[in-house]
Amino acid sequence: MMKKFLTSILIVGLAAQSCTKVNENVYDKYAGDAFYNTAAGADNALATVYGKITGTWGSNYAGRDNCWYDLNSFASDEQVIPHRNTGDWQLDFAQLYTRTELPTLGIINNTWNWIYSSIYSANLAITQLTAAKADPSKIAEAKVMRAWLYYLAIDDFGDVPFYTDNNIDVSKIPQEKRATIYDFIITELKANVDLLSETRGGAYYGRFNKWAGYMVLAKVYLNAGVYTGTPHWEEALAAANKVAAGGYSLHSGEVNAGSPLGNQYYELFGDVCPNDETILAEYITQNVVSGNIYGIRSLNSPNGVALIGFSGWNGTVIPSEFYDKFNDKDIRKKQFLVGTQAGGVTYTRDVSSLISPGAAPDEGIRDVKFFPVKPDASGASNDFPIYRYADVLLIQAECNVRLGNATAAAPFLNQVRKRAGLTDIAAPTLDNIYDERGFELNMEGHRRQDMIRFGKYLLPHGFVPAAPATRLVFAIPTAALNANSTLKQNPGY
Q: What positions does the domain RagB/SusD occupy (predicted)?
């Protein structure tokens, strides 16, 4: 179980803290090598990296706030937290949404620090496992995780510091071109994904198996044109086909009276992500391993009490432009709350202001895609789906359209649409695929990347004016520039 896998870190850490005597035996590196050569030792080395993925406030991939998820989600058109005219909520989220953030923004700095802290842990795990001549699949798992982290880094920041050996001073880490690191990522993934376990679920729930590795490869190839100027649609399609060969299928969208949102579809965002569709999940259990705040953060206080027994934070809203794209027959529209709600709350469709003076308390459409499971006032236990089979189908559809074969794309796209209760599209266009990705994958951290790849990111929408091309990457945080004077800031910041 992932819970046991992650808590092994805590056990080792507590044991280390409890050693207060100075006359203990000293063990040399061979004892360490022997340990990391065992299955338990190898898993412990990997757990230090996986522990960074779940993380805590300001230091994680998703689930909590003020880090990677928020940086990439609030810079898109799918969600925003307005400053409230009651004085609630800092301006950070609205600044990301309106693209007025500065390099000193805390969420930017948190994301940078989280990525590089995680890369450090991955480098360390690779060193430990390699020196111990550990199972090649475990070394490969650490290398795939590091490649995934560098993919996140170049996606957000462009040209970034690059190192694979921790024996280097932070001030001396060289800044490499985005395309150079892209080549490294591709090379590492191609060399290692076939060494990964093919096991799905069980001990590999929440871990990079072979199919998750190919999913990362598909994602990197899918965005190759953004990173290098040269698209690789055929390679992205081939990698997605590899993932599809893992035996995944779409989870049912049938009616489920026991679900708060009425369909089995929403089980994908509940306590445990179903293995039929989930390729890689982030394990979360409130007050044990991180916590998922996304439903609670959106609900107004009395609405939260009425629905889940705890006050909501009255934060995240869904821009009406994004909401209006959904068909009323689409089961995915059930995630949104607008109008009169339980607890005597009425959410308005539109928001009058994001920054000054800010929105009134009940302004804005709310989202409960991650309907809080076993919550308390600080979060919930919903696991987070990093990658799902629905995304694979949409990658297959997109690549076929981009390669000039819309007819071949249709079956992939229409599987996703059929589950949602929508009609088929015989010859999908790129706009059809772009919209469907928004309908299916919203609130899951993919939207900013999709907007950039489809050429939509710089366009005006709602409160957001047209943006210059320099905004296609985030600023390198001021703190990082201060720590390493050789780094060059991205243009426009």
A: 260-457
How many of the other CB atoms lie within 10 Å of CB of 7?
Answer: 15
- Residues 37-71 have pLDDT tens digits of 999 999 999 999 999 999 999 999 999 999 999 99
Residue 41 inside a domain? The answer is yes
Query: What domain range includes position 43?
Result: 32-61+103-196
Instruction: Report pLDDT for 31.
Output: 73
Structure tokens at 148: 């995934």
User: CATH number for the domain including 111?
Assistant: 1.25.40.890
| C-alpha dist (Å) from residue 440 to 13, 216, 324, 457, 483 | 40, 19, 15, 18, 40
Question: Dmax over Cα atoms in the chain, in whole Å?
Answer: 75
The answer to whether position 326 is within a domain reads no
Ramachandran quadrant class, 25 (left: phi over 0; alpha: psi -120 to 50; beta: rest): beta
Shortest CA distance to 88 belongs to which of 336, 463, 362, 376?
Answer: 362
CA dihedral 249, 252, 253, 259 (to 10 degrees): -130
Query: What confidence tens digit (pLDDT) does each residue in 457-490 have?
Result: 999 999 999 999 999 999 999 999 999 999 999 9
- Tell me how far CA of residue 214 lies from CA of 149, 219, 299, 336, 459, in angstroms: 15, 9, 36, 32, 32
DSSP state of 385: E
Model pLDDT, residue 1: 53
Instruction: Count the domains in the chain.
Output: 1
Question: Is 220 inside a domain boundary?
Answer: no
CA 298/CA 375 separation, integer angstroms? 14
